[in-house]
Every structure is written in structure tokens, then in C-alpha cells.
Amino acid sequence: MNVKPLGSADRSGDPDVPREHPPAQRHRRFGDPDVSALLKALIRIEAKLDRVQEELEALRNGADDSPFVTVAEAAHLVHRSPYTVRRWLREGRLNGSKATNGSKGQYLIPREEIDSLLQLGRHYG
Fold first, then answer.
1. Structure pTM?
2. Minimal CA–CA distance to 89: which of 66, 106, 67?
């Protein structure tokens, strides 16, 4: 009969016991081709993320070259609801025109209208 000393039970299948890995798998050197390839990929990813972040900041700051804005965009810019912007269009307090490109009568408002509205401080309800 094979008797193991107390405390030396085989627990290799126990998930709570960390396994020992061979030293070659435990520590990789910086010069390893796999690590070098990963570092190059991370650098490319970081550059792409920087470009995406710059574009998002430009959009947040309103750096759009479009000469027109939609009702939703205008409402966001003047901190009012789209309903209020549509009412201003109906009342003539804001100039705009309905799009004719099949977008169900969506209004297009010249960006200059919004800029002048904001400069004059006329964005009241």
C-alpha cells in the first residue's frame, strides 16, 4: 500500500492551487518576436485612437463645415427642444427651408441663422 505523508495530497486539478509553468513561459524577454509584434500593434492602435479622439472633440466643439443644420442639431446648439425650434420656424423667428430630398419635410436651417441667434441672445422660449 502506498501511503502519502499528511498534507502532500495531489491537488494538481484543484483550481485554487496555482500551477507552476516552465521558466521559458513564465518570463518573456523584451526581444521576443511575439512581444515586439504586439508592441508595434499597440503603437498603431494608439495612433488610431488619438485620431478618433481628435475627430470626436471636433464634433463636440461644433467644428462642422456643413452650411445647414437640422432641427435636432439646432435645438442642441441653442439648448432648446426640437419642438421649440420648429415653432420658431413656423412663427418666422428663425429662417429655414424644408428639404426636398425625400426626407419627409425635414427642415434645414442655415448655420448663420443659429450663429446670429446665439450672438443676439434671442434663444428664449
1. 0.45
2. 106
Asked if residues 106 and 70 have their Cβ atoms less than 8 Å apart, the reply is yes
Question: In the sheet that 97-98 helps form, which strands lie side by side, from edge to edge?
Answer: 68-70, 107-110, 97-98
Contacts of range 111-114, beta carbons closer than 8 Å, 24 or more positions apart: 111/66, 111/67, 111/68, 111/69, 114/69, 114/74, 114/77, 114/78
How do the domains of the chain map onto residue ranges?
A: 32-60, 68-120
| Residue that the C-alpha cell 518570463 belongs to | 27
Query: Could you please report the per-residue DSSP string of 2-53?
Result: --PPTT----TT-TTSPPP--HHHH---TT-HHHHHHHHHHHHHHHHHHHHH
Looking at the structure, give the CATH architecture of the domain made up of residues 68-120.
Orthogonal Bundle (1.10)
Q: Which residue has the higher pLDDT, 65 or 34?
A: 34
Mean pLDDT of all residues in 10-38: 60
Q: For 94-122, how does the pLDDT look when each residue is reduced to its tens digit (9 = 90+)?
A: 998 887 766 666 889 998 888 888 877 75
